[in-house]
Amino acid sequence: xxxxxxxxxxxxxxxxxxxxxxxxxxxxxxxxxxxxxxxxxxxxxxxxxxxxxxxxxxxxxxxxxxxxxxxxxxxxxxxxxxxxxxxxxxxxxxxxxxxxxxxxxxxxxxxxxxxxxxxxxxxxxxxxxxxxxxxxxxxxxxxxxxxxxxxxxxxxxxxxxxxxxxxxxxxxxxxxxxxxx
Length: 181
Known about the structure:
Blueprint: H1 7-15, H2 20-32, H3 46-51, H4 53-75, H5 80-95, H6 97-106, H7 115-138, H8 146-174
């Protein structure tokens, strides 16, 4: 049985200093399975899991990107320089986020897919999902206009991201790592 060290203690004992390169080497050791990182203060419930950025940072980044995209669209009519930001964020909002949250829902464990596979599946699924959402909107009273498309994509992204986040929390709690409150 080995002694439990904090991540900082382990990096300093192994390398003598703590920098990006040292943390990258430790990350590679974790990915290869040579060392196991254990959280000593696990979240007790889903709300704690949601607010801890070490578990839910991806969710908050997706949420902030989506909200920022929705804000830049009306502002781009008044401020010329915002229009370019709208193009960049809109591209991410349409061509990446819907597929990414779907991939996170389908494959919630970190080791299920390699990062490049997640990226490729995210883009591919987005290219398949967005037209399907548009097809459904076509048969509604709202039709295919900017506001209904934005609303439906934002709603889809948020709901599926919450499902993915809950699945990730369930995996953590089912692993018997979660303390009982």
